Amino acid sequence: MQRTVASLSRGFGRRTLATLDASKVTITNTSQQSQPRPNNELVFGQTFTDHMLTVEWTKANGWGVPEIKPYGKLALDPSSCVFHYGFELFEGLKAYRTPDNKITMFRPDMNMIRMNKSAARICLPTFDSEELIKLMGKLIEQDKHLVPTGTGYSLYIRPTLIGTTDGLGVGVPDRALLFVITSPVGPYYKTGFKAVKLEATDYATRAWPGGVGDKKLGANYAPCILPQLQAAERGYQQNLWLFGPEKNITEVGTMNVFFAFKDSVTGRKELVTAPLDGTILEGVTRDSILSLTRERLDPAEWDINERYYTITEVAERAKKGELLEAFGAGTAAVVSPIKAIGWQGKDIEVPLTPGEQTGPITKQVAEWIANIQYGKEKYGNWSRVVAEL
Ligand code: COI
């Protein structure tokens, strides 16, 4: 599909801006194909596959020819706007090997919707989602021998969009680069599947109303590292991000977060996560968990709620024995059980099943998602086949 705009440069006629078009892709093969590494050597985001995808965009011509080529360095001018004013956004999604020898991407349409929202927010070009899904599929096909096998192992896909206008003036970028790299991965945390301790952080804020906390901008991540280091010095693996005078629970580390409670009077159980009010990342794992639990947990027993809730509520309900479980939810770690939360000098203990690193609901949710991701169960159109092996 072509978009027509009046030509500014010549003052006559009309010019067409090229849209992102997967059918135009050119492929240059690496001279030396690498061999898959054993699963126990896969450290999250440290090994990359043989090829990458790049597509340039200019204001004058629109999207250029997509190129799949050997993985390698980018060359950019030091004045490029990505380095100075944070014109950068990214996505994270995964591809899995299924028992019937296919490679599938998990809900790539959701990531593409979010990526386009991020791009629009920082004046970078948007694109046809379906075309980038096709291009990612072609990239994965190229390196399909490097997609790991086994539950807990997958290919992490990192689409990224940067502004590449040269010069130090602050304005709308007239050049951009879209690139995709892929990394064979195992468990996100070095410790493997282990429950984590969080420090509730109220002295720093991850996101705020009217801000960009719901967009996947690199600029949202760098400022969160220092509070994380400070939490680590006190023995906590991640921060639990609070917001406002009420100290609402928002996210954990780089993930969405869920809590499960049981009302001691009525006996009703509740799974709760913060509402999408612009301060919360619109997580694909978050959305998948809400859909699956709304469909599969017994409504006679459970309420599944997106609502505001505070650290005070968690602390009080833990004291009354009403706190059942808590877990983080994101693409990288998928479901990450929580065992304690440091708050006001004490730890709020979060129950785990005795002898296990998880609780029953956390375990059930992780299993439901894994079964769909690894192709043991077909669920709507959540798995998109990209290659046959
Ligand atoms: C995720 O949980 O998928 C993330 O966003 C983590 C990523 C920044 C490595």
UniProtKB/TrEMBL annotation:
NCBIfam families: ilvE_II, PRK13357.1. One of its GO terms (molecular function) is transaminase activity. Pfam families: Aminotran_4. Its cofactor is pyridoxal 5'-phosphate. InterPro entries: Aminotrans_IV, Aminotrans_IV_CS, Aminotransferase-like, B_amino_transII, BCAT-like_C, BCAT-like_N, BCAT_family. It catalyses: L-leucine + 2-oxoglutarate = 4-methyl-2-oxopentanoate + L-glutamate; L-valine + 2-oxoglutarate = 3-methyl-2-oxobutanoate + L-glutamate; L-isoleucine + 2-oxoglutarate = (S)-3-methyl-2-oxopentanoate + L-glutamate. PANTHER family: BRANCHED-CHAIN-AMINO-ACID AMINOTRANSFERASE, SUBGROUP IIII AMINOTRANSFERASE. It is an enzyme of class 2 (transferase). The lineage of its organism: Eukaryota, Fungi, Dikarya, Ascomycota, Saccharomycotina. This is Branched-chain-amino-acid aminotransferase. It comes from the Eukaryota. Keywords: Amino-acid biosynthesis, Aminotransferase, Branched-chain amino acid biosynthesis, Pyridoxal phosphate, Transferase. It comes from Nakaseomyces bracarensis.
